[in-house]
């Protein structure tokens, strides 16, 4: 807690649908998966593979500058729901027997199945995409911002999604330590107490910033929706507050959800997300409160992208109820990239939970906030979680900049069907229209641009 007590601002940027191996698996590959500080890193060996369904194997491969449509890889949206995740991890959509380790060899076959139905239904697929593309993983040179921060501060190589399914349940676990039994994106609102309400009750200030739209989180949690307007804003409000040194104690950042945005949701442009990470980091680093800041960059779920590490069992259920698909919440989701950034963290840190403890997951963020600001746990899950305070080992803040001289990759590629709204833009518009019945969504809204105009905050 000694290092954590020096932190006055905790900022979380949660991006979309990428796995650990897919984004950072090659981070220390050239050094035999050992960080510069000598810590082991659970990265790619380069020999990992998946069956191709034809008697052969598809090996993991690096996404490099010469890879066609590199920043749109894997070229389509892999399956990301509960059954798809089971298929990727276990080779079957069925619920696995309790305690069964995943063999992690269904990614190619599940992507092949997904591509077939997406073609029939007219989904966005980059020309030339094949099932083997799901085995592509970015090199550090392709993601110099995320990789630079991961090696320049701390990377969490055993950080798992809270549940083996898609976006909204995992975001609910970050904000409320439960998805109230829900295991897909059909349910868009949650009535359980959130971390935001807990902070309010304790007198701790917080804010949620969308990118250029109303924050989805504002409309997802019923105890947040009617908070004062001063608690919400867009990214330019965040950068202004960071520059002025007026950021609240906890800040939650959302990306632009659209197909031309910076969320990094497959098959959107990953380079645009690199720019967002860069801008977030420098807004904080150039502000007057940098030495007292902890930035956590994470992803809500793996999004069907390849990872080689079997997610652990033994997760603590948030309550005693059984969820959708008969899921009992004792299994974590696949690994997601998570980077801890603070001048109180030593470069080259590989941060994990202690041996025998619950692994790091999204509720570790809640535990960090609870321990720092004296809050009670929201559910049994975050009560059992491990915080990230042990990563803050330095007594004197560093003054160096690991991203000095780094050039942000160009974000020129756009996915097919870029004019279609994303499902999260549709969700946000639906939630906003529920609160304002006169502002009905259908049939007026059709294109991405129309949705973006509707979900922009009124000034």
Explain what this protein looks like in three dimensions.
This protein has 459 residues and is α/β, with parallel strands linked by helices. It has a single domain (4-52, 137-420), classed as Alkaline Phosphatase, subunit A (3-Layer(aba) Sandwich), CATH 3.40.720. 27% of the residues lie in helices and 10% in strands. It is built from 13 helices and 14 strands. It has helices at 20-24, 82-90, 107-121, 144-152, 167-176, 195-202, 216-220, 235-244, 270-285, 363-373, 380-384, 423-435, 448-455, and strands spanning 9-15, 49-51, 57-59, 61-63, 136-138, 154-155, 159-160, 206-209, 232-233, 250-253, 293-299, 339-341, 349-350, 360-361. The strands form four sheets. The chain has an eight-stranded mixed beta sheet, sandwiched between helices. Helix 2 packs antiparallel against helix 3 (107-121), helix 5 packs parallel to helix 10 and helix 12 (423-435) packs across helix 13. The mean pLDDT is 95.
What would you say about this model in short?
The protein is of the alpha/beta class.
Write the layout of secondary structure elements.
Layout lengths: L8 E7 L4 H5 L24 E3 L5 E3 L1 E3 L18 H9 L16 H15 L14 E3 L5 H9 L1 E2 L3 E2 L6 H10 L18 H8 L3 E4 L6 H5 L11 E2 L1 H10 L5 E4 L16 H16 L7 E7 L39 E3 L7 E2 L9 E2 L1 H11 L6 H5 L38 H13 L12 H8 L4
Parallel strand pairs: 1-10, 1-11, 4-5, 6-13, 7-14, 8-9, 8-10
Antiparallel strand pairs: 2-3, 6-12, 11-12
Helix pairs in contact: 2-3, 5-10, 12-13
